[in-house]
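Title: Prediction job returns without error message
Component: structure pipeline
Severity: low
Priority: P3
Assignee: unassigned

Description:
Job completed but the reporter wants confirmation the result is attached to the right record. Sequence as submitted:
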Amino acid sequence: MKNRALVAMGIPAGPCAEEAKRVIAEAHAAGSTVRAAGDTLQSIIASPDAYLDDARYGVLASHLKAHQVAAKAFTPRQSVAPYRIWGEHLEPDSVRQLQNACSLPVAVAGALMPDAHVGYGLPIGGVLATEHAVIPYAVGVDIACRMKMTVLDLPVEALETQRERLVSVLERETCFGIGGGFRVKRQHEVMDADWRVTPVTADLKDRAWKQLGSSGSGNHFVEFGTLSVSDDAVGLPRGTYLALLSHSGSRGSGAAVAAHYSTLARRLHPELPQSLAELAWLDLDTEAGQEYWEAMELMGRYAAANHALIHQYIARALNVEVRLDVENHHNFAWRETHQRPDGTEREVIVHRKGATPAGEGVVGIIPGSMATPGYVVRGKGSTASLLSAAHGAGRRMSRTQARKTLSWQDAQALLRERQVTLLSAGLDEVPMVYKDIDEVMAAQQDLVEVLARFDPRLVKMAPSGEPPED
């Protein structure tokens, strides 16, 4: 039985769930049915005291009893931490997730971006400031997922006149898919870092090296397109350029770090009710908190290295210079100083899960979809949004719904209309699954200003059927 099914029964993740699985396995081996085992579990959940001395069920009863005692000790904030919402008609469940996060004892303030949708713990598009605590699921599973754009010294006309060459380079110098990696390891100084900073990262170095420079799956992509610069502040004169844009994160290594420390956080906070369990935190004064922070920082450098190599190898294969380089993280936590309502300042931990840093003057990238524009933006430094903005268009339908209701025929017709060549992707990533990027941008005019517009032309993503890593 999976953790989700056990949680639905009332058995929390961690020691309780592991012991319940052992009990079910023993019952199955003894010839008991799943239904009978489930009935027994329900009985233990209802009255753990009655099973404390039972040779078969005593350990599970003890774990459940301890969890129930701890849960009664939970004291939420007297009032929800202040938060602001940008955008209209957001999913009620995503709003509820932010409200839950702002009810945590460690919460200081929150914000919800106009691309928001439901995630684990904190919603995608959620921003949360906490007091000396980090929440693994408020950072996200794909730690340090990021955007990177380089403007290449090629004429825009190359998208037509050298199309086959550009396609060939994209196919040869990128790698997508769960577990995907290069046969010949690529080299970057991040692999010279001390991966023994935590026991978890120490065991991940070989996997990370194999996947170094690759892109993963889900909404991750590498694409050529045109960049129309409308403000010289972007670093180039106004005009239209050929650009390379990529989106991906820390691959399997980041996912392993997230899985380990989110599980650990839940075990350290059995007092949290089920609605808040995925928001369990790690105190930064503890060994666990320091370990996660070190691992997260390393995953940030690793994700940046992946992008650096993608852009380096493609530029080298094309034998061209890079004229502009812009990049930014999302799915990360930062130590920042923010003002209290009374005007005084304090250090907080700002989690941006699917949100772009948008401090005053900070340049970042907010993509659309494979057939809609993305934007290079400059932050306006809004304190109400915790110096944050949206990280993309945001999904308007689930992957399951997309596969059930959409067709490749309609998607390809739209791609042709927008002059986009799609090399590979899943049906659950076609443009129709995303919100209108221009509506998202209009909803956050007080957070960022647009410096340039990117329009995709040649797009590569993980092939259809790959499980998502985003």
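Comment from assignee: result matches the submitted record. The chain has two domains: 3-72, 146-461.
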